[in-house]
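To: structure desk
From: M.T.
Subject: fold request, one chain
Message: Could you run this one when you get a chance? Sequence is below, nothing fancy, just the single chain.
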Amino acid sequence: MLKRLFTLFFFLIFTFNTNAEIQKIVYIDIEKIMQQSVAGKNFINLLEKKHKTNISKFKKENEQIKEKEKKLITQKNILSPQDFQKELSKLRDEITNFQKNQVKARNEINKLRLLGTNKMINEITPILENYAKENAINLILQKKNIVMGKKEMEITDNIITLADKKIKKINLD
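Reply: Done. Structure tokens follow.
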């Protein structure tokens, strides 16, 4: 009886030890990768240039609309009421189109940002898979979903180095 109990105890301990494999879990900061990798920096610069171009374009248009408004106000007493209403209506239409174009440009930049981020993640995924295989990593989490973790568990800098070697630019075509 004692022999059976000892065998059962030994068998249970041996079974638990083989199932208690050490799980290697790490985390990465996707935002840091987007901001510090070569491809991410190129992408951010592209968005900033597009944004600055839009700002200067809309600033000029806004100034032109303000000039037209001032001109119309000065002509209020000179123009007939019907002509004034026609000109006012044209100005209102122009303002409406201006606002629509601003929203459209903002939406376009947001779409580009989303598209670029998705493409960057798609480019990084195989790098992460390879890294996980080579380093026997079971789970990679995003830093934004972690409350607390050891600094040694963060692999962001390693992934940035690998991404810089493999990804030079994000194609938005």
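Reply (cont.): The domain at 24-166 is CATH 3.30.910.20 (Protein Binding, DinI Protein; Chain A). Let me know if you need anything else for the meeting.
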